[in-house]
Amino acid sequence: MATKLLLLVEATEANLFGKGRKVQQEMDQAKADFEKAMDSKEDSKQGKAFRAKIGLRIRSSIDKIFIDGAEKFAKFAELRLAATATGEEIPEPPKSNAFVKIKSVNGEIFSYFPEDKAEVIFQLGGKYQNVEIDAKTAIRRAQIIANQYAYELDLENSLVVLQFLREELEESGDPFTDSDLNEDAEDIS
Fold this sequence. Notes:
The chain is mainly α and 189 residues long. It is built from five helices and two strands. Strand 1 and strand 2 (107-112) form a beta hairpin.
């Protein structure tokens, strides 16, 4: 019985470490793809298609990181309030992650988004969730970052981010328009 248990533990550990290595390889590949696209000046069909693919990953990353920030800051606000009420130590605020899982035509994959920009988007999600900024401000600030990447990737189309917030505004009768992009002069880089 002890031998079977030991073999099971060894097999489980090998499986876990193997998966960890695979996940790290996937994250390394996501970062390498991002960097390759950002450095690419190739004007071929393949080069443009690759940059467009990475652009779509960036758009998905921005949306996922924003939602993650909103969710984690909502939970953090609850924990902070509970800690304050009970006199306990206030927990550290949540941080973003440069790697997120996104859906692609081939299933779920990792996408890379630079940590500094990921943190800005994450904080935007938190500020929106905590009603420190409104939906238009959140969209505008995230769109500025997306526009920078679309420009750097030399994409033919812009990367429209936070579409779910745009749809909420549309349903409420106050749609986000191009003129809303120019209202926020605050530097978020």
